[in-house]
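Narrative of accomplishments. A recurring question from our advisory board has been how the design workflow behaves on a single, concrete structure rather than in aggregate. To address it, we present the structure tokens for one chain from the evaluation set, followed by the sequence designed for it. No filtering or post-editing was applied between the two.
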């Protein structure tokens, strides 16, 4: 993220015209990609190998989206999808030699699914409405994050689960990087991941992450207030 635009790999995304009107989507339960975040993927299904091939010869963008909660199927037998996903640019790519691709996606911006396009491709393509505001580096959003409360919740979760963190890296991270990285690596369920994705701004995402963490701690340990102290 640079001031005023999103820099992902060698590409700059500044305005709606820099983004596609339609995108191939990769439905994956529990996967969360957020703007500027990185998501590693192990691709092995034939239709998604074809999707990666098409993306690599095109704009290198695919849409990460979760199946809708409840996983109801549409008339074509495909799973219904959550309304909001995130565009990712392929910023790392490797072939394994056994028919798989190992890739890393870097988040560009969120999008809302519109209608599905009819194509001869084995993967699904949707028209999308990108969240253009995600392309801008909003310093006001970062300043609105209660960093101390977020770190308190994070440390409580680590302590409760006897885990450790690289605190030097945590301290150096910007609020944007910290919030989105913690949200993406959090071991929460699909509904919680979708709530974090759909949070309207960084401050709300941080507050949602804190609230979910407190609920999990209370459920497991009985008293989140004690753990958070």
């Amino acid at each position: 993220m640079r001031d005023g635009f999103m820099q992902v790999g060698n590409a700059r995304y500044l305005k709606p015209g820099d983004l596609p009107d339609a995108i191939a989507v990769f439905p994956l339960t529990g996967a969360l990609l957020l703007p500027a975040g990185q998501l590693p993927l192990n691709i092995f299904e034939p239709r998604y190998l074809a999707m990666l091939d098409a993306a690599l010869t095109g704009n290198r963008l695919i849409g990460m989206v979760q199946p809708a909660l409840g996983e109801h199927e549409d008339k074509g037998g495909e799973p219904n999808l959550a309304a909001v996903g995130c565009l990712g640019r392929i910023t790392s790519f490797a072939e394994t030699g056994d028919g798989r691709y190992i890739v890393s996606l870097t988040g560009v911006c969120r999008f809302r699914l519109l209608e599905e396009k009819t194509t001869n491709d084995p993967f699904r393509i949707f028209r999308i409405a990108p969240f253009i505001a995600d392309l801008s580096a909003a310093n006001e959003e970062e300043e609105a994050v209660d960093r101390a409360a977020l770190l308190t919740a994070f440390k409580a979760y680590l302590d409760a689960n006897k885990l450790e963190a690289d605190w030097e890296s945590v301290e150096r991270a910007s609020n944007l990087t910290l919030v989105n990285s913690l949200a993406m690596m959090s071991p929460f369920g699909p509904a919680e991941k979708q709530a974090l994705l759909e949070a309207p701004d960084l401050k709300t995402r941080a507050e949602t992450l804190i609230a979910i963490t407190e609920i999990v701690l209370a459920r497991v340990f009985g008293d989140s207030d004690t753990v958070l102290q």
